[in-house]
Design brief:
Layout: H1 3-15, E1 20-21, H2 24-30, H3 34-50, E2 55-60, E3 65-70, H4 76-89, H5 94-105, H6 113-125, H7 139-150, E4 155-160, E5 172-185, E6 188-195, E7 200-205, E8 209-214, E9 238-240, E10 245-249, H8 253-259, E11 264-268, E12 274-278, E13 282-284, H9 286-292, E14 297-301, H10 303-317
Antiparallel strand pairs: 1-3, 2-3, 4-5, 4-8, 5-6, 6-7, 9-13, 10-12, 10-14, 11-12
Helix pairs in contact: 1-3, 4-5, 4-6
Length: about 325
C-alpha cells in the first residue's frame, strides 16, 4: 500500500470512530515500521489542525492509541444534566424526547456514550409525557414561534383557552398579534403575545395553539414599552408589572426567593420570619403561589393582592 493510500485508509478509520494503535498488529497490517505510522499520524493531525473540520486528534497515553474526537463534544456530565432536566419536564412527546436524546448523546465522546445511555435507560422507560399535549409535537411550534419572535412577525392564530364556556366546553378562538418572547415554566412553554386590538401583552401556552401562521396584515407593530427581551421570562410568576410588593415569610427564605426573581430580604424578624420586598409584582401565578404557601406567608402589600387572598381563603373554608 502506497503512503498516500495508507494515510487515507487510516483517516477513514479514524473518522468512523476507530482507534489506531501504534503497535505490532498495526505495523504488520500496513507492512510498515512504527516510525512510519507515527509520521502518518502526524500528517493527519497537521491536516486536521489546519482544516475547518470539527475534529481534534487525541492520544490515549494509557493504550498508546489515537482517535478523532469532535471538537463540539460536550462533557458527559453536561449532557447527562440536560437530559435529566428535559425528561423531568415531561413537556416533549416520547418521539421528540428520543430524538433529542440521540442528538445530545452524539455530542459525548464515543467512550462515554454507553455510560450516558445506561444512566438514563430506566428513566426513559418510565417516561410519561404530559397528557394535555397528546401526541402533538411541541418542537416544530417552538421553532416557528422562535423565528416570528426574532423578526417581530405579526401572526394570526387559533387558540384553545383552558377557560370553559357556560356549557363546560373549551372552544378555540381566533386572534392576531405579535409574539414577543417565549419561556418555559412549570411543565409548559409560554408565548408572550402583544395584541394590537387590546394594546396589551398576554401569555399563551404554546401547546394550546390550534393553528398559527404569518398574518396578512403585516402593518402591526408592538410599542417599544411592550417589547420584552427574548427569554427574559423564565420563572413561574410571569407577566411583570411595576407594582411593589411586600411579603412576610415564615418558611425557608430561599424557597420564596427562587420564585421571586430580583426580590430581596429587607429584615429578619424575632419570630424567625423575614420581610421580602420587590418592585415588580408578577401579574400571573402570584395568587396561586401565595395560596400554596399556606400559613407560611402574609401579604403586606399590595392591598389588592391581600384582599384576593382573603377572598380565596373564605371560599376555601366553605368546603370544610
Amino acid at each position: 500500500m502506497k503512503s498516500q493510500e495508507r494515510v487515507i485508509n487510516i483517516l477513514l478509520k479514524l473518522i468512523n470512530g476507530e482507534k489506531i494503535a501504534i503497535d505490532a498488529a498495526t505495523t504488520d497490517h500496513y507492512q510498515v515500521t512504527e516510525r512510519t505510522l507515527q509520521r502518518d499520524i502526524k500528517v493527519i493531525r497537521d491536516a486536521v489542525n489546519v482544516s475547518e473540520a470539527d475534529y481534534q486528534m487525541q492520544h490515549d497515553t494509557t493504550t498508546g492509541s489515537y482517535h478523532l474526537a469532535k471538537g463540539s463534544t460536550l462533557a458527559t456530565e453536561e449532557v447527562l444534566a440536560l437530559l435529566k432536566m428535559v425528561i423531568g419536564t415531561r413537556s416533549l412527546t416520547t418521539t421528540e424526547l428520543l430524538r433529542v436524546k440521540d442528538h445530545l448523546v452524539a455530542l459525548v465522546t464515543a467512550d462515554d456514550q454507553p455510560l450516558v445511555e445506561k444512566l438514563i435507560d430506566q428513566t426513559l422507560k418510565d417516561y410519561t409525557p404530559l397528557f394535555s399535549n397528546g401526541d402533538r409535537e411541541i418542537l416544530p411550534r417552538l421553532r416557528s414561534f422562535s423565528k416570528w419572535i426574532a423578526h417581530q412577525t405579526p401572526i394570526a392564530f387559533s387558540y384553545r383557552s383552558s377557560v370553559p364556556n357556560r356549557q363546560g366546553e373549551t372552544i378555540a378562538q381566533s386572534g392576531a398579534g405579535i409574539p414577543l418572547s417565549v419561556y418555559f415554566a412549570d411543565f409548559y412553554f409560554y408565548v408572550v403575545m402583544y395584541l394590537p386590538d387590546r394594546d396589551k401583552s398576554l401569555n399563551y401556552r404554546l401547546d394550546r395553539f390550534e393553528e398559527a401562521h404569518v398574518a396578512q396584515d403585516s402593518g402591526m407593530t408592538a410599542p417599544n414599552a411592550q417589547r420584552l427581551a427574548t427569554g427574559s421570562l423564565t420563572h413561574l410568576l410571569t407577566g411583570t408589572t411595576d407594582t411593589p410588593y411586600e411579603f412576610r415569610y415564615w418558611g425557608y427564605p430561599q424557597t420564596a426567593l427562587d420564585q421571586l426573581p430580583n426580590a430581596r430580604i429587607t429584615s429578619w424578624e424575632d419570630d424567625g420570619s423575614v420581610i421580602i420586598k420587590g418592585d415588580h409584582l408578577a401579574s400571573r401565578g402570584t395568587l396561586l403561589w401565595v395560596m400554596s404557601q399556606g400559613a407560611q406567608i402574609q401579604v403586606k402589600a399590595p392591598q389588592k393582592l391581600a384582599l384576593a387572598v382573603k377572598r380565596e381563603l373564605v371560599k376555601a373554608l366553605r368546603y370544610y
